[in-house]
Every structure is written in structure tokens, then in C-alpha cells.
Amino acid sequence: MAFDKKLLEVLACPVCKGKLVLNEDSTQLVCRFDRLAYEIKDGIPVLIESKAISLSLDEVDATR
């Protein structure tokens, strides 16, 4: 199941309530401000802070 990109208009980072962006391979939603990535499983984003992946500055820059 693919992630519906229209959801990006209404989804927000659970930590800062900021905008999320889809990474290049469409497997994660990234919050650039908090440097967190949220996995997408079976087309459903897992927006749970404790399951988020911390990103380095280089990894965040790669999502631009």
C-alpha cells in the first residue's frame, strides 16, 4: 500500500506540530526542525515520538 501524499497537508510532527516532508524513497516522514524521521508501515505513518528515528544534520539536508 502506498502512502497518500495528500495527507501531508494535514499531518504534523507530534513533537513540534511542524510540517513533515516525505523522504526520497517514500518510506519516512521527516521533521526537519526536530531532526526526526517517522516510519511509514503499510502506507500508514507511525507518528509516535518514542518510535521516531533521530537524524543527523546531513541526513536532514538530504531530504531537501
UniProtKB/TrEMBL annotation:
InterPro entries per the UniProt record, alphabetical: Trm112-like
Family of the protein in this entry: Belongs to the UPF0434 family.
Alphabetical list of PANTHER family matching this protein: PROTEIN PREY, MITOCHONDRIAL, ZGC:162634
The protein's name: UPF0434 protein C6Y39_10710
Organism (species): Alteromonas gracilis
